[in-house]
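Data deposition worksheet. Section B asks for the primary sequence of the deposited chain exactly as it was used as input, without tags or linkers unless they were present during the calculation. Section C holds the resulting structure in token form. Section D is free text for depositor observations; keep each observation to a single sentence. Incomplete worksheets are returned to the depositor.
Section A, Depositor: J.P.
Section B:
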Amino acid sequence: MTTKTAGIHHITAFVRHPQQTTDFYAGILGLRLVKKTINFDAPEVYHLYFGDRMGSPGTIITFFPWPDSRKGSIGGGQVGITTYVAPAGAYDFWKERLIQFGVEIQEAERFGEQYLQFADPDGLRIEIVAREAGPESDWTFGGVPADKAIKGFGGAVLFSTAPESTGRLLEEVMGLAKAGEDAGFVRYRAFGDLGNVIDVNAAPMAHGHGGHGTVHHIAMRAADDAEHAVWRQHVASHGYQPTPIVDRQYFNALYFREEGGILFEIATDPPGFARDEEPEHLGEKLMLPEWYEKHRGEIEKLLLPFEVRELEESK
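Section C:
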């Protein structure tokens, strides 16, 4: 059985307000809210998932909106930039759209590719790159046509306090291939066609600290439960300390922290987000695991209401 991951399963971050976050990721970026649930470890906090139509692995960004959280600082030990991929030829569409919505952008080049770089309302760093690889999205929302819609993750830029150690993890444990160095970054590539490109800073970076506007962890893909069990043994055999496998309802998860300070998760592709909602109704109601269902009334009183809505462009 292989011990090579296909790439990123999901990325999870801290933000402040569910409406502000939904307006940005659904209203501007055109992603679908595929699941509205809670942080199973802190049920007074939402856990919101955005992705393609079905929330396919490699497309999912998740958020813990916590209105009273402290402001974080992006730095070593974190995902520094979350990379989205759009279809080839869609770069100018996204540049124009972001400007029309009043999003401040910068343009950068890395490994011969052009990137639109910007931040969400909490300061999370995002970039969009256009590539041929990967299936195109069939989800359209807010004026984003299917042939321009974000496909999912292009990958991520990891900010490591010990980049050589992080690179060894990616190559020797996760099974990515080193692809080159450019502009102060080392590139690693997984075999999948979404979420498959990981760039790591070449020089050590000072620690950041958690809070809203920072990424909590990055999750890599396991094909199924059987492979997931192998992954846990594989990670432990390389000297890391993985957690027990945890049931997250829509995938199973295990976690470990590597020497560069970054918290990694390995998550299973199944069962997916349609296990408790029909595909056409994903994200429409608050879904609770059965052990919290008896507390639904109390939990709903603690959560701020919000809605998925189309936005008017700034002029």
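Section D:
The chain has six helices and 16 strands.
The longest helix spans residues 225-237.
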